């Protein structure tokens, strides 16, 4: 009996996806980060950029998670874990928090996804039959100036999460601007999906095989490996 | 003389209807949640409650206890993640009005501000707006009622949904400091939905960590003016925290 050696892992780790998203943040941005890979993004922002992170329970200027002895039950983040406030942070009630979301003050919201369609439809809040919970996702996708998705390219069964049409309940229609995955970066444009970047060691054919929707390839991508 | 400080939790909760009240509860998870006041309501055998709150409790305290004891008939909120909630909702014991979090905050704010309804983009094009989300199940798992389809309207080329204000009978909230005029100050992110619940409700009861003399809270550091608050009780006088 011969043992097939496992294929070496390709593409970016979850932390590397977060680091790649952080590269695209600019000094002075106001950003909401959701659960999962997005929550890793603040750790990867270059020290020369001041990015203020927003937590929708009422905090602008969210800092890193506290050490155990510094936990304060009156200072938590949107996932209900303990957090900290950076110098200059501001705290406000939930109506003000969502006023700044709907009012277009967030440069970006970075979220995970269950499915994203070729036209930028997003499904990331509900699998019928499971726990119903929408949180602030529907407000964020309508209010933030840009919606970036940070996720694994395929689900746990290997099925594509980027699809022609979402089959799961939508969070919003045509709301996604950019998708960062372990394999690639894709933009959602009026003409459809465009592959703008490959993760190191990944080729276009690998991305096509893992993607459930057609996409164009931006000029120069796939020729140099990035 | 205005004095909203009550000497016992029984006095503070005396006017809460024992059956069928719509009760808004502040807090985000357990942060800023009036856990002791909610549990005091359970001790008073309050039932058939329509809870308005972002979450429906964590673990066994506060709204989680009210849920586990089967006292909740209807829930309006954004993230009822408790496993017991899913069980009771699917068994047809709780009617669910699932509401985006920002819409929940604004529905309470509007209720307190004399505004009956407003348009928001949140939920446009989703099952929460088009009336296809299961709001209530029957005992055999069949869907008895779907969410209300929401009116939509275009403004400047963009579609919005109409949302109604919430005007609860009662609000239970938690604050850091209070004075006898009812002025409240909250601490850090424990503020969240608390002032909004207080503004929306006809009757507001606050559990507070401490009471200070009138004048000690600087007027520009009062987060909720006392006009929105009816009864205040110090947390050490409530339930098991009195020990």
From TrEMBL, chain A:
Belongs to the 3-oxoacid CoA-transferase subunit B family. Keywords: Transferase. PROSITE patterns: COA_TRANSF_2. InterPro entries: 3-oxoacid_CoA-transf_B, CoA_trans_fam_I, CoA_transf_AS, NagB/RpiA_transferase-like. Signal peptide: none annotated. One of its GO terms (molecular function) is CoA-transferase activity. This is 3-oxoacid CoA-transferase subunit B. The keyword rRNA-binding does not apply. It comes from Pseudonocardia thermophila. Pfam families: CoA_trans. It comes from the Bacteria.
TrEMBL record, chain B:
InterPro entries: 3-oxoacid_CoA-transf_A, CoA_trans_fam_I, NagB/RpiA_transferase-like. Keywords: Transferase. It comes from the Bacteria. The keyword Transmembrane helix does not apply. Transmembrane segments: none annotated. GO terms for molecular function: CoA-transferase activity. PANTHER family: ACETATE COA-TRANSFERASE SUBUNIT ALPHA (PTHR13707:SF60), KETOACID-COENZYME A TRANSFERASE (PTHR13707). This is 3-oxoacid CoA-transferase subunit A. It comes from Pseudonocardia thermophila.
């Amino acid at each position: 009996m011969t043992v097939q050696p496992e294929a070496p892992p390709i593409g970016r780790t979850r932390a590397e996806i977060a680091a790649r998203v952080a590269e695209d943040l600019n000094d002075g941005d106001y950003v909401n980060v959701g659960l999962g890979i997005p929550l890793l993004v603040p750790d990867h922002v270059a020290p020369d950029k001041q990015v203020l992170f927003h937590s929708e329970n009422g905090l602008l200027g969210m800092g890193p998670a506290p050490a155990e002895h510094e936990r304060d039950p009156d200072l938590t983040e949107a996932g209900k874990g303990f957090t900290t406030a950076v110098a200059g942070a501001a705290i406000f009630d939930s109506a003000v928090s969502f006023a700044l979301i709907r009012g277009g003050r967030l440069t970006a919201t970075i979220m995970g996804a269950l499915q994203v369609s070729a036209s930028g439809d997003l499904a990331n809040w509900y699998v019928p039959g499971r726990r119903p919970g929408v949180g602030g996702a529907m407000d964020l996708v309508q209010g933030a100036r840009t919606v970036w998705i940070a996720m694994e390219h395929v689900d746990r069964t290997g099925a594509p999460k980027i699809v022609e049409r979402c089959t799961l309940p939508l969070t919003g229609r045509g709301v996604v601007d950019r998708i960062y995955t372990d394999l690639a970066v894709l933009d959602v444009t009026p003409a459809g999906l465009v592959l703008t970047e490959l993760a190191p060691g990944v080729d276009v054919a690998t991305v096509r095989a893992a993607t459930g929707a057609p996409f164009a390839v931006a000029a120069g991508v796939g020729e140099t490996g990035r | 003389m205005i004095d909203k400080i009550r000497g016992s939790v029984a006095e503070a909760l005396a006017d809460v209807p024992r059956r069928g009240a719509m009760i808004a509860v502040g807090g985000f998870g357990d942060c800023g949640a009036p856990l002791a006041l909610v549990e005091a309501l359970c001790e008073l055998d309050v039932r058939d409650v329509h809870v308005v709150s972002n979450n429906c409790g964590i673990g066994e305290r506060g709204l989680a206890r009210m849920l586990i004891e089967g006292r909740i008939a209807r829930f309006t909120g954004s993230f009822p993640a408790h496993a017991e909630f899913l069980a009771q909702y699917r068994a047809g014991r709780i009617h669910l009005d699932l509401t985006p979090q920002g819409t929940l905050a604004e529905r309470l704010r509007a209720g307190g501000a004399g505004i009956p309804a407003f348009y928001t983009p949140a939920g446009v094009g989703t099952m929460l707006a088009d009336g296809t989300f299961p709001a209530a199940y029957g005992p055999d798992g069949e869907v008895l009622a779907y969410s209300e389809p929401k009116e939509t309207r275009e403004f400047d080329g963009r579609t919005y949904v109409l949302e109604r204000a919430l005007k609860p009978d009662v609000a239970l909230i938690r604050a850091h400091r209070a004075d006898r005029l009812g002025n409240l100050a909250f601490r850090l992110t424990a503020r969240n939905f608390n002032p909004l619940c207080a503004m929306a409700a006809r009757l507001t009861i606050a559990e507070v960590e401490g009471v200070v003399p009138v004048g000690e809270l600087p007027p520009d550091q009062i987060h909720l003016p006392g006009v929105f608050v009816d009864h205040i009780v110090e947390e050490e006088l409530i339930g098991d925290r009195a020990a």
